[in-house]
Amino acid sequence: MNAKLFNIITRWGRNMGISTVPTKEYIIQDVIPFIEFNFKSLKEEDVEMAFNLFSAEKISIPKEKHHFGNLSLPFIGSILTSYTNWKRQKAGEMKLIIGFKEPEQKILPVSKEAHFNEMVSGLTKAYKIFCENGHYLDWGNIYYDWLISIDKCVCTHQDMDDLDKRAFEKVIQDLKENKKNNKNDFAIKNINIDIQRFLNGPTSSDKAQIEREKKQICLNDLFKRLKEFDMTILEWMTEF
User: Fold this and answer.
1) Prediction pTM value
2) Residues 82, 88, 91, 93: is their CA dihedral positive or negative?
3) Rounded Cα–Cα distance for residues 196 and 126 (Å)
4) Which of 96, 93, 87 minimizes the C-alpha distance to 139?
5) Which regions of 72-166 does DSSP assign to beta strands (E)?
6) What is the C-alpha separation between 237 and 85, in angstroms, rounded?
7) How far apart are CA 98 and CA 96, in angstroms?
């Protein structure tokens, strides 16, 4: 059982005014598998943020989807879908801010310098998280894509030689791990379908997932090398 997700659901269920207290079995057997299967990209922190934003009326759902006293799956699904759209919109706004799309007007050198400093600062924080946890999730591959856009080599030639294989194996491993930790028969059945589809020949959507994983592996490999050589992000950015 995902204990962290269980605690988030029970706590925010009370905070959002759920009058019919859901049973522990319902949350474990229905709610958690529902979230893990339909919202794979969301972490526990995302689920908590979604409930928080909904309670603060910063994201909304259709009136007919409201809980009406019950912690129903359509209610939870509507909140997480609304949050996913909100998060995607914020990511798009961030891309515009940090220059992922070329603006029509010429960027002044000062703006480029400010943008560079902002990205280096964010990358430094990401590297710190990696050093503390051994992994950093580059949501949307923002830092990887930015490094590539400024012609910084993220992966070595050796990395590139086996990157497709590593990314494919990582996706399959994550699916199998999700299956291992899942107790819901419906969710397990669908995970098996996903695994078989990847093995038989991934779809265009699956290939996009593998491509995102490749970028994720490259960035973590970069952080690993920097840690081995005891080098900071700023040192790497300015020396190479």
Assistant:
1) 0.49
2) negative
3) 34
4) 87
5) none
6) 33
7) 6
CA proximity to 115, closest of 141, 139, 146, 89: 146
Residue 136 makes CB contacts below 8 A (sequence gap 6+) with 126, 127, 129, 130, 219, 220, 223
Amino acid at 136: Y
C-alpha to C-alpha distance for 41 and 84, rounded to whole angstroms: 9
Query: Closest by alpha carbon to 41, among 215, 174, 204, 232?
Result: 174
Distance from C-alpha of 19 to C-alpha of 182, rounded to nearest angstrom? 28
Interatomic CA distance for residues 23 and 188, integer angstroms: 22
**Is there a contact between 141 and 212 (Cβ–Cβ < 8 Å)?**
yes
Cβ distance 141 to 206 under 8 Å? no
Residue at 147: amino acid letter: L
Nearest-10 Cα torsion for 237, 99, 128, 42: -150
- What does the pLDDT look like over 134-173, one tens digit per residue? 888 876 788 888 888 888 867 666 666 688 888 888 888 8
pLDDT tens column, 67-79: 667 788 888 999 9
